[in-house]
Amino acid sequence: MHSEQEDNDKNKLHNEIFSSDGLASKEKSILSKKKWFHCEICGKTFSRNNDLFKHVRVHTGEKPYPCEICGKNFSVNSSLFRHRRIHTGEKPYFCDICGKTFSQNIHLVRHKRIHTHEKPYQCEICGKSFSVDNSLSRHRRIHTGEKPYFCEICDKTFSQNGHLTRHRKMHAGVKSFNCKDCSKVFSRKSSLIEHRWIHINNKPYQCQICDKTFSHKNVLAFHERIHNEGKL
């Protein structure tokens, strides 16, 4: 049989442990006794020595796991495991909404945001939101003016790697966009779209002075000079 005093003492102890202050103190005690592993290079801490060991490879550049098919090297075995799916075509992760499959779970997570319209990454400057973090990183360059990608031929700089890739095609003379109507080829998709207006007789550019329409923006600009010269 428990005495009334014993029951009161137990209730008091229970309240102390599960109160916010008591629980916080207990957690602090556990954390203070937990052993942490520190990176001597950058100071980052890890709860497991194995995680620290893997992290140090970021600084040393060590990549001890090579792909036996293409020879690409990786710093951790799990990255090599995911990379192999490029060669095998394995896509074990599938969207339960549309059925599309993916080789990595993170790609599936990002894809599902198309269906949910979730955009968890917000620009702290203008408030615009994005579904993936790298889209936010590219967007920030609009505000900062950063252009980290440069052409080694003409030194022109770009904010996105894709823009640099398209630019390089101009130097190389690569024209990969073909017009189905006349077989004319272009180095940029936007140039092909503008060209096709000739075939469909679409003239979206209108002169604000005489209402004449044109299929190309640069032709409209040339036309407007006629009006401007007449004013001189």
Mind explaining what this structure looks like?
It is found in: Nucleus. InterPro entries: Znf_C2H2-type, Znf_C2H2_sf, Znf_C2H2_type. It holds the Pfam family zf-C2H2. GO terms for molecular function: DNA binding; zinc ion binding. Residues 16-20 have low confidence and may be disordered. This protein starts with a helix and ends with a helix. 50% of the residues lie in helices and 12% in strands. The protein is α+β, with helices and mostly antiparallel strands and 232 residues long.
CATH C-level name of the domain at 37-88: Alpha Beta
- Radius of gyration based on Cα positions: 31 Å
Sheet-strand content, in percent, reads 5-15%
Number of strands: 14
**SSE pattern:** HHEEHEEHEEHEEHEEHEEHEEH
Question: Helical segment tally?
Answer: 9
- Mean pLDDT equals 83
Strand order of the largest sheet: 1-2
CATH topology of the domain at 37-88: Double Stranded RNA Binding Domain
* Mass-distribution shape: elongated
The CATH superfamily label of the domain at 37-88 reads Classic Zinc Finger
Alpha-carbon distance between the two ends: 110 Å
